[in-house]
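Allow me, if you will, to draw on your knowledge of protein folds for a short while. I have a record of one protein: its chain in single-letter code and its fold written as discrete structure tokens. Kindly check, if you would, that the fold set down in the tokens agrees with what the sequence suggests. Thank you for your consideration; the sequence and its tokens are set out here:
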Amino acid sequence: MHKRYGLIGKKLSHSFSRNYFTQKFEQLGTDASYHLFELADISEFPALIAREKGLLGLNVTIPYKQAVIAFLDALSPEAADAGAVNTIRFVNGRLIGYNTDIIGFRESLLELLQGNIPKNALILGSGGASQAIKYVLNQLQIDFQVVSREPGKGDITYAALDSKVVSNVHLIVNSTPLGMYPDVLSMPEIPIEAIGQQHHVFDLVYNPTETALLAAAKARGAKVRNGYEMLVLQAEAAWKIWNQPLDLLS
């Protein structure tokens, strides 16, 4: 039986997932295909599901990781706690939401930190991608502040983010799309001069491999990592969920 999977998001020309899964299907000899479904608004989601018969699973990317929850029938415990979904499995007509970003970010972050767990962190951005970051930092007992452009959406605004705040944290995670291809020169407005050798900077952006933020942080001695490994890990976790026997799903 031919298996159909896909990705929903607003702009998907930069998609990592289609190439990754297409190559995976070829390597495994699996009769499957992976499709990109651009939605101008999440309200188009029910029509997509009604139209695209035979889908077995979907990935979800920005800006719909939170908004899609309203259209799902159930959530895994981690997705419910995080308040965001990036993976959907179709089970007997029901749509079940999962968050494999949690797995991807946790494993990639721990490899970056090499056992040096910091006491505090800054999360740049308050959108759906930040939810998995918050979940993992809570698990690791790392205190954090969320930085947002708009007052009330985070703990602190970029306008209030001065050198003293930045120098006093040892982990900075960018969960915004700033710096993503083709807008490669953009970066979050933070005082780069406050970053030094004591910092770890993790950017969820993976294209380009070194964003303007990572290049600037690296030049100041920080240890840096992009989002590519996280993407691979979350994709593999999604594939496992899509193929797990129903009685093993949690």
User: Anything to note?
Assistant: The chain has a mean pLDDT of 95.
